[in-house]
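Milestone 3.1: sequence recovery, worked example.
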């Protein structure tokens, strides 16, 4: 017998109603009776045999046992630990998870009602407002996407070497009628948890490509637009083909669009490197975002051979009063230079930042000192002037 298997003899109780749960069981041999107590008497709900699972409900939602399991015929049981079940549930689509929890809650309250109790009597009964809230939020986001109610703003990126040369980073905004402005971080993480990241990323990409064509008409110089790529897009085999089609439709060249990638523990670097190679072969430019804030930055530079690296705000902000940060930035710029990678500093918030970064030979800068995110119309005005 394996270490996760146990034997129980006829008449033994495997678990009792209302006990705290620590595992579920698969019956390999024997029979088990599931019963609940009603008015002092045991009422049999079911009898289970080989291949069936018991006790899984309490493990799923971490509540107390809703029934008693008694061995009717000598049993061999495989123990299923919460660690084998819960991570799978937490990785499941949140809507599926929420429906599962709703079903469990409903089943449990029916059991309690049959026992003459109300759901409120069971303090161990979990609440799922979070899951339900997510379903609502997800529906609203889907509607906002369908009705094109999400806005894109553009933050200027300016050359520190030349007087000309502009880029804009596309950033998503959701001005929600009731919730107010929703942070892109919350919005993106919700979209990533559900299947909405694919349409959302295409929405942003399409808007950026179409707006870029208008920006080019207004500008006298070359310019680029950069869009943020979610780790999910970087494992989506269709994303690049769709992005290409969008460029063709909009009338811009892939070389005018930079794809910003952040490090992610969820994407295998070799897979990401294949994706980046395909993107580069199609003509897109690749940028490593938030450089210096993650865990594998240096490998990203070597492996992905990006066109650009954006140094994270957390490393840039302190350079005005901490020379150790200046040293770190100088070394990053030196290294990027040898690798022929262009450097953009993020979070450039003062003229002192601009001065130091220019002295260090940084190529471009982005931040409130350079410009706050602007609407499409403001960008056109800026370019015309
Ligand atoms: P990010 O890509 O690092 O974008 C820069 C963020 O820093 C933006 O916040 C920008 O408004 C803010 N920022 C710019 N300059 C300064 C500055 O000088 N000081 C300070 N303190 N902050 C500055 P935002 O728009 O809230 O975006 C937050 C993050 O959300 C972005 O970080 C990006 O990771 C993500 N995001 C935004 N739009 C999209 C999108 O369309 N798709 C995806 N996948 N992610 C997006
Ligand atoms: Ca970015
Ligand atoms: Ca960034």
């Amino acid at each position: 017998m394996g270490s996760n298997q146990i034997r129980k003899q006829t008449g033994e109780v495997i678990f009792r109603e209302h006990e705290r749960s620590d595992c579920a069981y698969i019956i390999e041999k024997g029979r088990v009776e599931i019963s609940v107590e009603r008015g002092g008497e045991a009422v049999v709900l079911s009898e289970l045999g080989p291949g069936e699972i018991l006790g899984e409900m309490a493990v799923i939602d971490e509540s107390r046992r809703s029934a008693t399991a008694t061995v009717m015929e000598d049993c061999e049981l495989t123990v299923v630990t919460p660690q084998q079940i819960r991570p799978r549930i937490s990785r499941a689509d949140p809507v599926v998870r929420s429906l599962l929890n709703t079903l469990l809650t409903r089943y449990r309250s029916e059991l309690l009602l049959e026992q003459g109790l109300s759901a409120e009597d069971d303090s161990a009964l979990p609440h799922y407002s979070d899951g339900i809230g997510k379903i609502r939020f997800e529906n609203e986001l889907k509607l906002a996407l369908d009705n094109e109610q999400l806005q894109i703003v553009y933050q200027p990126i300016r050359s520190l070497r030349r007087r000309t040369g502009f880029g804009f980073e596309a950033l998503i905004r959701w001005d929600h009628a009731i919730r107010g402005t929703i942070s892109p971080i919350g919005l993106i993480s919700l979209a990533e948890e559900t299947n909405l990241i694919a349409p959302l990323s295409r929405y942003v990409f399409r808007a950026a490509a179409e707006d870029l064509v208008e920006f080019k008409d207004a500008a006298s110089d070359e310019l680029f637009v950069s869009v943020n790529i979610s780790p999910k897009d970087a494992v989506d085999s269709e994303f690049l083909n769709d992005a290409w089609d969008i460029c063709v439709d909009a009338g811009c060249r892939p070389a005018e669009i930079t794809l910003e990638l952040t490090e992610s523990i969820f994407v295998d670097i070799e897979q990401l490197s294949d994706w980046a190679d395909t993107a580069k072969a199609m003509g897109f430019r690749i940028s490593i975002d938030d450089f210096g804030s993650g865990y594998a930055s240096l490998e990203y530079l070597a492996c992905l051979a990006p066109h650009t690296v954006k140094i994270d705000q957390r490393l840039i902000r302190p350079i005005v009063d901490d020379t150790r940060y200046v040293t770190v930035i100088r070394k990053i710029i030196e290294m990027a230079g040898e690798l022929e990678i262009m450097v953009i500093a993020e979070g450039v918030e003062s003229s002192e930042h601009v001065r130091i970064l220019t002295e260090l030979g940084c190529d471009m800068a982005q931040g409130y000192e350079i410009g706050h995110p602007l609407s499409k119309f403001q960008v056109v005005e800026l370019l015309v002037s």
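The longest strand covers residues 24-38. The two ends are 80 Å apart (CA to CA).
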